[in-house]
Specification:
Blueprint (H helix, E strand, L loop, with lengths): L2 H9 L15 E6 L2 E6 L7 E4 L5 E6 L5 E8 L13 H8 L12 H19 L4 H19 L6 H8 L3 E7 L4 E8 L3 H11 L8 H16 L2 H13 L4 H4 L6 H4 L4 H11 L5 E7 L3 H12 L22 E7 L4 E9 L4 H14 L6 H8 L5 E8 L3 E9 L6 H17 L4 H18 L3 H13 L6 H4 L2 H6 L3 H11 L4 E8 L25 H8 L17 E5 L2 E7 L5 E8 L8 H9 L3 E2 L4 H10 L3 E6 L4 E8 L3 H14 E2 L2 H18 L3 H14 L11 H6 L2 H11 L4 E7 L3 H11 L24 E6 L4 E12 L5 H11 L6 H9 L5 E7 L7 E11 L3 H13 L5 H17 L6 H11 L7 H4 L8 H11 L6 E6 L6 H5 L3 E4 L2 H5 L2
Length: 979
C-alpha cells in the first residue's frame, strides 16, 4: 500500500465505520539472488521477512533518510523462562553478553579460562552454602580469584568496538518474554557490526562477573526505590497467581541475586540463544539483497535446537476484584489493572488499541473528556500492555486535594461502564482510526520506531499476521460499535486488581547489601587480535554534510514578519509554528495561561467541543513556554490544515475565562506542587539549579501559591489574546509550496500593524563556586544520588572540538573513563556519567556536571571515586583512538532532516553564530591528543571547588561524613521549589 492509499483511508474518517471485514493484503514470496523472502503487498515499510536455513528470522526494512540503521537482536526468552529457583538469569545473561568471548575481551584466553572455571565452581559452592561464615569465606575467594582473572580481561572491549565504528545507543533490555540487544550504527560499518555480533553470540564468556553482579544489585535497589515498580509488581502478582508474569520479576528476588549460578546462566544461554528462537531486525539505509547475503554468511554457523517454550496452565477466572495497598514516598495514586486476552491475534490486539484510545488518547477519550477536561481528578489515563499469553489493561488516576483514592477509583470504573454501555459517540471511533493512521505515517520516517514495531510483533509471535498488522488502521475501521461494546463487556468485568499507592513508609523494603569488592584491573591499553581485525576491515566513508542556513530552508516576508519554510517531500503531514521571543523570564504567568488554555472554550464552543473537533481532524496543537520563547505548534494532515488553522486561530482569539474551570485548575496546581515535593528526580533537579544559580534560580522562580490564590482567570485569557500582538516568526514544514502556504495562513492569521514591546526578561546569573559546598535534601530511599555541579567559563565556539572530544573520552558512554572506572572496576554504581555541558546562549557559561547513583553505604567511596577522576584523568591511547573514531563518525553520519534545520538555525543564533559550527569543528578532532585533554582538565576541572547535590535518607548516611566535602547546607523543599 503506497502512502497515497494510506492518506485516502484517513480522508474517509468522517464516513461511517463499516462492520465489513477489510480486504487483507496477501503475503507474496519473492526469490532474488538466491534468497527467498516474504513481503506484504502494499506494506509501507516494505519489510522483507527471511528465514535462514538454520531458522534465524531476519527482517529488513529500507529507509534512506540518513546513512544509518537501527538493528535489534531479539531472543524470545526473558524472565518467564527463568527457573523458579534461579530468577533473574535472563537479565544476568543480558549483562554478560557485553563481556566478550574467547576471542575478544581477553588478553590471554588460555590463561584466563582455568581461572574463570574456578570462579564458576566457587559460585556453585556459594550457591549451595547456607552457613554465613562459610559463605563469607567463599566470597573472599571469589573476590580474590576474580582479581586474578581480571588481569587477563579487557573491560568494555565490546563497547570500544561499537564506539569506534560510530554506534550510538548501544544497549539491551530484558522483560518477561524477551531479551533484546540494539544499536544504531552507520551504514558504512555494516560489515564490522555483523562480524562483531556473529562473534558475540558464538561463545559468550562470563568474565568480570562479580563487579557486574554488583551493578545488578544496584539495579535491584533502584527498583526498590521506585514506587511505580512496586505497584506493578503487586498488580501482576495478584493478576497472575500462577503465571510467571506475576510470580517472578525480571531482575529476580534478593535471595536469588545473592546466590547466582553461572552454570544455570550458561544453561539458559544454551537453551534459548539458538537461531530458531532469535530474530535480527535491521531498518535503515542499505541494499537488502546484499545485506541478507552478509547476514547468512556471518550467522550460518548457528545450530538450531528444540526450544522448550514457556506454556503455563491457564489462570483461573477472577471472580471478584483484588484490593491491595502499597506504601512509599511518592505521591499517591490508584491503579486498576484488568487481565485481558493475549495479543497474538491481531484483531484482538487492534481491538485493545481501539479501547485504549476510546478511553484515553490524551485528547478526546472518555477519561480525557469526562475526568481530565472536567478536572474531576488531578490526572488520569489508560494503557494496554500486550503480551503473548495475556494482556494487562491499566487505568491510573491521581487524586485532587482532599479527594480519596477510592473516589478516583470509582470515577475510573465509571468510564469503563460508559464504554460497556455504548455511552460514546460513534464519531469518536472514526477519529481514533484517523489518528492511528496519522501516527503510523509519522513513524515511517524513524528507523527506531519501525524496528521496534517489527521487534514487538516478533516477540508476541505476530509476524505471521503482518498482512493484517501492516493494514492495522483499516482493520480498526472495520470494527462496529457493537463489536467494541461486546468486547468491553466480555473482558471488563470483576477481573481486576486495584492498588492504592499511599504515601508512607514501606517497612517491608529490604536492600541488596553490598559485598566487599576489590577493584579489578581494566587493562585499558590492551587490545585483542579480534578487535584489531575488526578495525582493519575496510569500510566506506561517508562525507559529512554541513548545514547551509542560506540554502537549506526558505525565508519569505509574511505581512510584517517572516515565514521560514521547509518542503515535506515524503508524506502529507504538516507542522505549523508561531515562535515568539517571549517566555516565562518575561512573564511568569504565561506558562499558567498556556496550561489554562486547554480548559477554556472559544466563542459558543466549550473546551470539550474544541478538543473533540481537533481530534476529529486528526490535528493537535501545543503551546510550549520556555525561558525566553513561546511556541504554538499545530500538527496534522495537509488536507485538514485550513480547518485546523481556523480552529486554532479561533481558540487563540476567542478563548474566554471560565471561573469554575480556573478554580478547579488552581486547586489541581496546588496539589501538583505538593506532589512534586515527593518526587526525588525533581528534588535532585532543583538542587542542581540551586547549585548553579543560588537560592534564586530558574527552577524555583514561579508564581507563588499566594499569588496563584489571588489570580484572576481573565489575566490568563488576556495573556493568550495579547500573545499574537507580539512579534513572532511563522514556521511551516509540509507539502505545500511556500507561496501556497503563505496564502493559506494569511486567510486566518492576521498580524497587527505594529507589535508590542516585549517586557524585559528576569535575569539569573550563574554563581561562582569559590569553595566546596554540599547541598543535602532528605528523602526516604534505599539508594543515594549525588550530582556534582560547577559553572565554568563563558561560551567560546573555538572550544567546541575539545569539549566534544573530552565528553566522549571522559564520561560519554559505557566505554568512557568514568563508566569504566566507577562501574566496571569499582562496582560503585549502576548508572554514572560526567559531562562538560555547553550553554544555550553565547553569554552563558559552560557547566561541569557529574552523577552517580549508589547504595547509601557506598556514598563515601562513590564521591571519592569521582573526585579522584577529577584530579587526574586516566590516560589510554586506545580509548583516545576509539573516542576519535566515534566522534568523527557521529559528525559524518549526522543528518538534520525535515524542519530540524530551522531549529538548528535558531540554536546557532542563540550562540551568536551564523553558520554550522560542526564544519570548522570536525577537522580539529585529528589534532586532539591526550596532553591537550589533560591540559583542558587541569585548567577547568582538577582541584576546582564543586557543589555536591545529594538526595538520600538522613537515616542511612552520616552528616558529618558529608560535611567533610564542603560547607553543608540542608536545603528545604520550599527553598528548592519556591512554593
Amino acid at each position: 500500500m503506497k502512502i497515497a492509499r494510506f492518506l485516502l483511508l484517513i480522508c474517509c474518517f468522517t464516513a461511517q465505520i463499516a462492520s465489513a471485514q477489510p480486504t487483507t493484503p496477501a503475503w507474496k514470496t519473492i526469490s532474488e539472488n538466491g534468497y527467498s523472502f516474504r513481503m506484504v503487498e502494499g506494506d509501507p515499510m516494505k519489510a522483507r521477512f527471511y528465514k535462514l536455513s538454520n531458522g534465524l528470522t531476519v527482517i529488513l526494512s529500507v529507509n534512506k533518510k540518513q546513512p544509518r540503521l537501527q538493528s535489534i537482536f531479539a531472543i524470545r526468552a526473558g524472565s518467564n523462562s527463568d527457573p523458579r529457583n534461579h530468577t533473574g538469569l535472563a537479565h544476568y545473561l543480558e549483562h554478560m553478553l557485553f563481556k566478550g568471548t574467547d576471542k575478544y575481551g581477553t588478553r590471554n584466553w588460555q590463561k584466563e579460562k582455568p581461572i574463570l572455571d574456578s570462579i564458576q565452581q566457587l559460585y556453585e559452592a556459594y550457591n549451595h552454602t547456607t552457613d554465613s561464615k562459610a559463605r563469607a569465606s567463599i566470597y573472599r575467594k571469589i573476590d580474590q580469584t576474580s582479581g586474578r582473572a581480571a588481569r587477563f580481561a579487557i573491560a568494555n572491549e565490546y563497547d570500544k568496538m561499537m564506539a569506534s565504528m560510530g554506534a550510538q545507543g548501544s544497549n539491551a533490555s530484558t522483560w518477561y518474554e524477551y531479551t533484546n540487544y540494539y544499536e544504531d550504527i552507520p551504514t558504512t560499518s555494516i560489515d564490522k557490526y555483523l562480524a562483531v555480533q556473529a562473534e558475540r553470540f558464538r561463545n559468550p564468556v562470563f568474565r568480570i562477573f562479580h563487579t557486574e553482579l554488583e551493578a545488578v544489585y544496584e539495579e535491584k535497589n533502584m527498583s526498590l526505590d521506585s514506587d511505580p515498580d512496586k505497584v506493578q509488581e503487586t498488580e501482576y502478582a495478584s493478576l497472575f497467581p500462577t503465571h510467571n508474569y506475576g510470580q517472578q520479576t525480571t531482575i529476580g528476588t534478593i535471595q536469588h541475586l545473592k546466590n547466582p549460578s553461572l552454570t544455570e546462566i550458561r544453561n539458559f544461554y544454551n537453551n534459548y540463544y539458538v537461531p530458531n528462537n532469535m530474530a535480527l531486525i535491521m531498518v535503515g539505509d542499505f541494499d537488502p539483497d546484499e545485506l541478507i547475503k552478509k547476514i547468512d554468511k556471518r550467522f550460518g554457523y548457528m545450530t538450531p535446537k528444540d526450544v522448550k517454550d514457556y506454556h503455563p496452565a491457564p489462570e483461573r477466572d477472577m471472580s471478584k476484584p483484588v484490593i491491595k495497598e502499597v506504601y512509599g514516598p511518592d505521591a499517591e495514586e490508584v491503579e486498576i489493572a484488568f487481565r485481558l486476552p493475549g495479543a497474538t491475534d491481531p484483531r484482538t490486539s487492534l481491538m485493545m488499541d481501539m479501547l485504549e484510545s476510546l478511553l484515553s488518547n490524551g485528547k478526546a477519550g472518555l477519561i480525557d473528556i469526562n475526568l481530565n477536561k472536567k478536572q474531576l481528578v488531578l490526572g488520569a489515563s489508560a494503557s494496554n500492555s500486550p503480551y503473548r499469553d495475556y494482556s494487562v489493561f491499566t487505568l491510573r488516576g491521581r487524586p485532587k486535594n482532599e479527594q480519596t483514592l477510592e473516589a478516583v477509583k470509582n470515577l475510573l470504573l465509571e468510564q469503563i461502564e460508559k464504554l460497556k454501555s455504548g455511552d460514546f459517540d460513534e464519531s469518536l471511533m472514526n477519529a481514533v482510526v484517523a489518528n492511528h493512521k496519522l501516527a503510523e505515517i509519522q513513524a515511517l520516517s524513524d528507523n527506531e520506531s519501525r524496528a521496534f514495531r517489527l521487534f514487538s510483533d516478533f516477540v508476541v509471535d505476530r509476524n505471521e499476521t503482518w498482512p493484517l498488522l501492516s493494514n492495522g488502521s483499516a482493520v480498526m475501521a472495520s470494527f462496529s460499535k457493537k463489536e467494541v461494546i461486546d468486547f468491553a463487556k466480555e473482558n471488563f468485568r470483576e477481573n481486576y486488581v486495584c492498588v492504592y499507592k499511599r504515601v508512607g513508609e514501606d517497612k517491608s523494603v529490604m536492600k541488596v547489601e553490598k559485598p566487599p569488592i576489590t577493584p579489578v584491573a581494566l587493562n585499558r591499553e590492551a587490545q585483542s587480535p579480534f578487535l584489531a581485525s575488526v578495525n582493519a576491515m575496510p569500510s566506506n566513508t561517508v562525507k559529512p554534510q554541513w548545514l547551509d542556513f542560506k540554502k537549506d530552508f526558505e525565508r519569505k516576508p509574511f505581512q510584517n514578519s517572516e515565514m521560514l519554510y521547509v518542503r515535506n517531500k515524503d508524506n502529507e503531514i504538516f507542522r505549523l509554528s508561531y515562535r515568539f521571543n517571549l517566555g516565562v523570564y518575561n512573564e511568569k504567568k504565561l506558562a499558567l495561561a498556556a496550561l489554562y488554555l486547554q480548559y477554556m472554550g472559544a466563542g459558543t464552543a466549550t473546551a470539550e467541543e474544541i478538543t473533540r473537533e481537533f481530534y476529529s481532524l486528526a490535528s493537535s496543537y501545543r503551546v510550549s513556554v520556555d525561558r525566553e520563547y513561546t511556541t504554538i505548534e499545530l500538527t496534522g494532515l495537509q488536507e485538514n490544515m485550513s480547518k485546523s488553522v481556523a480552529l486554532l486561530e479561533r481558540l487563540l482569539n476567542e478563548c474566554k475565562a471560565d471561573d469554575t474551570a480556573f478554580d478547579a485548575l488552581r486547586a489541581r496546581i496546588t496539589k501538583s506542587r505538593s506532589d512534586n515535593k515527593l518526587d526525588k528526580s525533581l528534588i535532585l533537579r532543583g538542587l542542581r539549579y540551586y547549585a548553579a544559580y543560588g537560592p534564586k534560580n530558574p527552577f524555583n522562580s514561579q508564581v507563588s501559591n499566594e499569588q496563584l490564590s489571588r489570580m484572576n482567570p481573565n489575566e490568563l485569557s488576556g495573556l493568550i489574546h495579547d500573545l499574537l500582538n507580539y512579534k513572532h516568526t511563522i514556521i511551516y514544514y509540509g507539502p505545500l509550496s511556500i507561496d501556497s502556504v503563505s496564502l493559506l495562513i494569511s486567510q486566518f492569521h492576521k498580524l497587527p500593524s505594529t507589535f508590542k514591546q516585549v517586557p524585559p526578561a528576569e535575569r539569573f546569573d550563574q554563581v561562582d563556586q569559590k569553595s566546596p559546598m554540599v547541598l543535602f535534601a532528605d528523602y526516604e530511599m534505599v539508594q543515594a544520588e549525588i550530582m556534582w555541579v560547577r559553572n565554568m567559563s563563558v561560551y567560546d565556539a573555538s572550544k567546541t572540538a575539545t569539549i566534544d572530544f573530552f565528553n566522549e573520552y571522559y564520561g560519554g558512554g559505557m566505554g568512557s573513563v568514568v563508566f569504566q572506572t566507577l562501574r566496571e572496576s569499582k562496582a560503585l554504581a549502576y548508572g554514572t556519567y560526567a559531562s562538560y555541558g555547553s550553554p544555550d546562549k553565547k553569554q552563558e557559561r559552560y557547566s561541569m556536571i557529574a552523577y552517580i547513583g549508589c547504595q547509601a553505604d557506598k556514598l563515601k567511596e562513590a564521591i571519592d571515586g569521582m573526585n579522584d577522576l577529577f584530579l587526574k584523568m586516566p590516560q589510554s591511547e586506545k580509548l583516545m583512538e576509539t573516542s576519535r573514531k566515534s566522534i568523527k563518525n557521529q559528525y559524518e553520519t549526522q543528518r538534520f532532516t525535515e524542519d530540524d534545520v530551522i531549529n538548528e538555525w535558531f540554536a546557532a543564533q542563540e550562540l551568536g553564530l551564523d553558520r554550522d559550527i560542526r564544519e570548522e569543528t570536525y577537522p580539529k578532532f585529528d589534532k586532539i591528543d591526550y596532553p591537550s585533554l589533560l591540559k583542558f582538565e587541569k585548567e577547568n576541572i582538577a582541584g576546582r571547588p564543586f557543589t555536591y547535590c545529594v538526595v538520600a535518607s538522613a537515616r542511612k548516611i552520616k552528616m558529618d561524613q558529608l560535611a567533610k566535602y564542603g560547607k553543608l547546607k540542608k536545603v528545604t523543599l520550599e527553598e528548592i521549589f519556591g512554593y
